[in-house]
Design goal:
By secondary structure, the chain is α/β, with parallel strands linked by helices. The chain has 2 domains: 88 residues, no CATH class; 267 residues, Divalent-metal-dependent TIM barrel enzymes (TIM Barrel). Helix 8 packs across helix 9 and helix 11 runs parallel beside helix 12.
């Protein structure tokens, strides 16, 4: 029940707050006995306005501000909820188990249906969806299966390629990316990953302008649909066919010029954590991280990605996770394993070994 302070608010405002409560619980609660009527909100932590919806971020969580027009007298007001850290701990905290995910590229030989069922069987409650696999399955059928299995979508991969390296025109790439935003919204994906595209013969400054133009248009659409965009820089040794962005400072420089709060970055340990100084600059990057991808390496990439099982390479995954957690990250950890060093492994073993290590690190 809303407390007595909230009950004194007028009916349209109470209706919006009730909708926000239900969405909050349905999306994030892991307590089986938690009912909408059991939630007590502290009126001192609620600012009431009605209007447009926007993504809200804090150091401990993220959620979509949801709002709606409820009449002419409230048309210029925005409804937002602001919760303390303790409130988040009671109602929103995700268990370690629910924060572990696997990107479908890790199990390339399996179908989308296989991925959902087997990831769930091995204890994962989230999945990084690869668009071609979902397309083969059928989007409606895929959404139904995810719902039946109670699987969240940690990310949708991927949109981008705006520089024309893959033969598509700028407009073709942008239209495809807009379709991906719609799909991410339909899947309630935590983010849509974005790859800029290679330089493709452009000067670096021109490639940056092309990407910034596309990203600005994409961000506006994504913000209207409540979708977070996560731009992924890659290691220079394997980025050639995917992106000209090979470090976080350059990536954040472009994002800063866009001016939208619903854009962040993917921090892929395989790509970014091979820098021996990663632990020195990582704290400053944490506020911008929308997704952490977990990959390990025995050597730097030379042309193709070649990941090894987590914990078998030299990437300081344990220190990275401790640092990211310490500075407030509460998003997903998405396993991505591909390359020659893992191609002969049994997928079941890969899933079990990865989950075991990450659970150990997250709970330590």
């Amino acid at each position: 029940m809303l407390n007595s302070d909230l009950m004194r608010l007028d009916a349209p405002v109470r209706a919006v707050l009730g909708h926000l409560q239900r969405q909050w619980i349905r999306t994030y609660s892991t307590a089986s006995n938690l009912q909408t009527g059991d939630v007590h909100l502290d009126a001192s932590r609620i600012a009431i306005f009605l209007g447009t919806c926007r993504r809200f971020s804090s150091s401990r969580f993220e959620f979509h501000r949801m709002s709606l027009y409820v009449g002419a007298s409230h048309r210029n007001t925005v409804a937002s909820l602001f919760f303390s850290r303790s409130t988040v701990g009671r109602f929103m905290h995700k268990s370690w188990n629910s924060r572990l995910s696997v990107l479908e590229l890790s199990t390339l030989r399996w179908s989308f249906e296989d991925d959902v069922l087997r990831y769930h069987e091995h204890g994962y409650r989230a999945i990084g969806v690869w668009r071609p696999k979902l397309s083969d399955c059928g989007e409606a059928k895929g959404r139904e299966l995810l719902s039946e299995m109670g699987m969240s979508v940690s990310s949708l991969h991927w949109a981008g390629g705006f520089t024309g390296h893959d033969g598509r025109t700028f407009r073709e790439s942008l239209h495809d990316a807009l379709d991906a935003v719609q799909l991410a919204a339909d899947l309630n994906a935590d983010c849509l990953t974005v790859l800029a595209g290679s330089r493709a013969g452009h000067t670096k400054s021109h490639a940056r302008r092309i990407f910034a133009t596309a990203l600005r248009e994409l961000a506006e659409c994504a913000q209207a649909m409540g979708v977070q965009l996560a731009v992924e820089p890659m290691h220079s040794g394997c980025a050639h066919d995917f992106t000209f962005l090979t470090n976080i400072p350059d990536t954040l420089d472009i994002l800063g010029g866009i001016g939208h709060s619903n854009i962040g970055i993917v921090f892929d340990c395989y790509h970014m954590a091979q820098d021996p100084h990663v632990l020195e600059w990582l704290p400053s990057a944490v506020p911008f991280i929308r997704l952490v991808q977990c990959g390990d390496a025995k050597a730097a990439p030379l042309g193709l990605q070649n990941r090894c099982l987590l914990g078998e390479g030299y990437v300081p995954i344990a220190d990275i996770i401790r640092t990211i957690e310490h500075y407030g990250y509460e998003g997903y950890y998405e396993v991505e394993l591909l390359g020659e060093d893992v191609e002969d492994y049994d997928y079941e073993h890969m899933l079990d070994a990865s989950r075991s290590l990450l659970c150990e690190l997250l709970q330590s």
